[in-house]
Amino acid sequence: MMTLRNLLNEQAAEILAYKAVSSEQVKTLEPKAAKAANCRMYDLMLRAGEAAFSTLIKHWPSITRILVVAGNGNNAGDAYVVAKLAKLAGKQVSVICEDPKRKLLGDAGTAQAEWHNIQGSTFTFAQIVFTDYELIVDGLLGTGLTGEVRTLFQQVINQINQTSLQVLSIDLPSGMHANTGMPLPICVKADVTVTFIALKLGLITGKGKEFCGQVEFTDLAVGDEFYQLANVDAQVVNWSWLQPIENRPINGNKGTFGKLLCVGGNQGMPGAIRLSAEAALRTGAGLVKVYCHQSSGLHVASGRPEIMLQYQDLETALDWCTSIVIGPGLGQDQWAVQKLEQLLKYLAVTPKPVIIDADALNLLARKKVKLDVKKILASLPACILTPHPGEAARLLDSQISVVESDRYQACKAIAQMFACSCVLKGAGTLIYSKQESDEQHSFIVCNGGNPGMATAGMGDLLTGILGALLAQGMFEQQAAVYGVCAHAEAGDRVARQYGQRGMIASDLLQPLRAIINAL
Fold this sequence. Notes:
Elements: H1 4-7, H2 10-14, E1 19-21, H3 23-36, H4 41-59, E2 65-70, H5 74-88, E3 92-97, H6 106-117, E4 121-124, E5 135-139, H7 151-162, E6 166-170, E7 192-196, E8 199-200, H8 207-212, E9 214-218, H9 223-229, E10 234-237, E11 259-263, H10 271-282, E12 287-291, H11 297-301, E13 308-310, H12 314-320, E14 323-326, H13 334-349, E15 354-356, H14 358-365, H15 373-378, E16 383-385, H16 389-395, H17 400-405, H18 407-418, E17 421-424, E18 430-432, E19 443-446, H19 458-471, H20 476-498, H21 509-516
Parallel strand pairs: 1-8, 2-3, 2-5, 3-4, 5-6, 6-7, 7-9, 10-19, 11-12, 11-14, 12-13, 14-15, 15-16, 16-17
Antiparallel strand pairs: 1-10, 17-18, 18-19
Helix pairs in contact: 3-9, 4-5, 4-6, 5-6, 10-19, 14-16, 19-20, 20-21
């Protein structure tokens, strides 16, 4: 069985920065990894501080006035090390904390004492005017935070966020839940976050990506030991880290590269299914046919004669195809319910790969189809659901805010609910696959894409891309990974050339063609 590791190029498969774990694993296994590497925990703290200071110099080499914000735990110890290194490098440095007279415990206390030994200046939060400085080093709260931030620390975080100063956060932005990326209920908005030992789950998806800024990673020279003990909770991917798609056989024909049927395009809604179909063509599907409402046909095929159309006899179209997309522009009226029900009944007898998106998901959420959907989908050779957070919330009978508060849990719950793979779209798109492989309990997170892609039709493009990859013979997890990453890379290429604002879904079609061909 092919695994995710087989999909990554050799370098990407080995780099620890692409593997994320829970904060609980870091807390439990960090001491064991240090011991295995013959390293004291205080040595790790020194390495963390040195890495943070190196990151500071890398991003802000000319900064001279630095304010270090320290809390009361180990994160504060890292902050005191940074402060000491900056002062010894000739920078003007001040540390602020809750109580300068309070002696911290353990290794953090040792770092604090070393700061005092070089006559470092320490003040209370209220004694400093933030705007007297050029840069803030955030060492207030660390990965152990799970409950609401204390009122005093909330006030400090507010002050940091209200300045126009650049912010470097140590390990993760203070106030962030390490596993979900959610503020508790407020979080430092960092420009750069330097994180240690292992990538934290909350930094790579949802709101966490907004708060952490650019993420720098260092394993503090104990990464190998750590990952011998840890289970990887999420694997980060992007297009550049994937193995190239195999070349096409010279004697291939249209049928060799799959026949994709796209079902949708109800009355007055032709655009979405057209985007799916055209994306499938640009991704290399041999033949693409759209089954749509008759009134939508002219608009679906206009200017794109390569798209075939069918209005009647859905079963004949299903017999013709090798894989299926359903949902874009499907609607939620009786016509839509009939088509979805007919498709599911067909698949129960004749299993084929399918992508379910958009209104097909909404109909499943509303339980409009009176069939054992999970049983049918579980029997298919491949099935991928592609909800955005709103559709995910409807599937889970929940709220968007709840989905976004723990995207990992929501994605996994949907995959388990329907016994298939789930692609939860958004910043840091998540993939949870049912594949029986060594990554079957791991999430896959795409770190590509940009906010310019938050516009109509982008999800319809992704659906067509995924359908085309299944049609060409990719297995479920492979299609999900390659499809999500190619889609994100296309959006990033458009953004680099033209900017994010004004990007529309069809802009991605030309770069998509080049990406799939590894150009």
